[in-house]
Amino acid sequence: MGIPLSREYDVAVIGAGVVGAGVARELSRFSVRVALLDKEVEASFGTSKANSGIVHAGFHDTPGTLKARLCVAGNRAFDRLSAELGFPFERRGELVVAFTEEEVQALQSLYGRGLENGVPDMALLGRERTLELEPNLNPDLLGALYAPTAGIVGPYEYCFALMENAVRNGVDVHLGSKVVGIRRDAGGLFTVNDAGGRSFGARFVVNAAGLFADEVAAMVGLEDFSIRPRKGEEYLLDKRVGSLVRRVIFPVPLKRSKGLLVIPTIDGPVMVGPTAEKTRDKEDTSTTRKGLRKVFRHAQKMVPSIRARDVITSFAGVRPVSSTGDFVIGGTSVPGFVNAAGIQSPGLTASPAIAELVVSSLEHEGLTLEPRPGFVAVRQPLPRIREHVESRGFEEVALLAQADPLYGRMVCRCENITEAEVVAAVRRGHVTLDGVKYATRAGTGRCQGGFCTFRVMRIISREAGIPLERITKKGPGSEIVLEKLPKGRGSS
């Protein structure tokens, strides 16, 4: 006798990164019952959280591939999505810089590829115009390819926004739900089992499991692709050097990657990287001295004033590179099982278009899509005190603090994050230190949480009713306090 079903759904989406959350949000437009499952305790905690946050223009990818088609289509969607869902997004543009005549010829090829892919408004620039746009670039450059439609985005904020809006429109989210088995009965119903003993029924399954998508596919007998992990190390610089570049700066791309970049982030600091190293370990997020030296050697060629001494933190992400060389999206030989796999760069950019393609594939598989009455497309973003200061000055903040004194209590000095902002994040379900950090930026500044970590923990404990010794950085096994504190310690 099987495990009784916890609940039955029309669609179970496995993976709550930007692709899975995007699919769930797109499905929530329709009158279907949807479950979104992820092994992590918060959305975006897999591949998505280590994303570089670039919305690519679309000239890097080979014409005719899914990557090329969906990148350009996805890029166009970000203005609308940002307006609807309230996540930060800016069209800053990107420059590919050339230092030799051979590289200048390569720019011509990229330009032609971009035209074939449908990238608008590109231009080939000479040395003088390039340095007008970015004065801190190496003056030895010969020219650049400029694509103004590229942008930067907060990847985790984007992911949270997709998930929150999906939930607003009826999607059930099951976090901390690691899928360990899937079976399909004679009637076509899938049973999805998780490591916690729960069992979910679904007529359709979407495999958006990122690095583990090949393992999820194998659960239903599919072995037509594999995931070949590729690690990328990145380094975040102090915000005081955040004005080094305004646009994303690329070198002429390498055969297997876009190269090592200089990236302005949506919140101000500049980031450099990523490397592209093959790894067998899908969860290897270590950084290395070798990686640091490599990143800065290449970054300084483009922006000489960049210095490793300005690094405030480093991190690594592992990209789910498919053995097919392209995205793996659509129906399979198992009726009702749809892949959204191998979503490496430009996966973030392509994610809105991937979501639409997956929903179209589900309809082709037999899912009935009737518009949901009362679908709500908009989401109210979390409060941002810094935005009030920058746009309206401290008088506006004083008014906010009069209405809610928590706006007058600073929790994170480096990023100017108030208690009101942390409370709002916790009440929306962010109950880990990393979840609060990604939602509010508390702990991302120069001191990397040295000032605010315990303050955030106390707020989580108070608002969510979680004892301090059970608060984690990113889920079970990452507890901060190793034993129960004596009574009275750590209270607000």
Q: Can you offer a commentary on this structure?
A:
This protein has 492 residues and is an alpha+beta fold. It has 3 domains: 1-87 and 151-226 and 323-381, FAD/NAD(P)-binding domain, CATH 3.50.50; 88-150 and 228-320, D-Amino Acid Oxidase, subunit A, domain 2 (D-Amino Acid Oxidase, Chain A, domain 2); 385-470, Orthogonal Bundle (Arc Repressor Mutant, subunit A), CATH 1.10.10.1100. Helices cover 31% and strands 22% of the residues. It has helices spanning 18-27, 66-85, 101-117, 127-133, 155-168, 213-218, 289-302, 347-365, 385-392, 394-403, 419-427, 433-440, 453-464; strands at residues 7-14, 34-38, 54-55, 89-90, 94-98, 123-126, 143-147, 151-153, 172-175, 179-184, 190-194, 199-207, 227-237, 248-251, 261-264, 270-273, 277-278, 311-322, 328-331, 337-341, 410-412, 417-418. The strands form 5 sheets. Strands 1, 2, 9, 10, 11, 12, 19 and 20 form an 8-stranded mixed beta sheet that branches. The model has no long low-confidence stretch (mean pLDDT 94).
Gist of the model:
It is built from 13 helices and 22 strands. The chain has 492 residues and is an alpha+beta fold.
Keywords:
alpha+beta, Arc Repressor Mutant, subunit A, eight-stranded mixed β-sheet, 31% helix
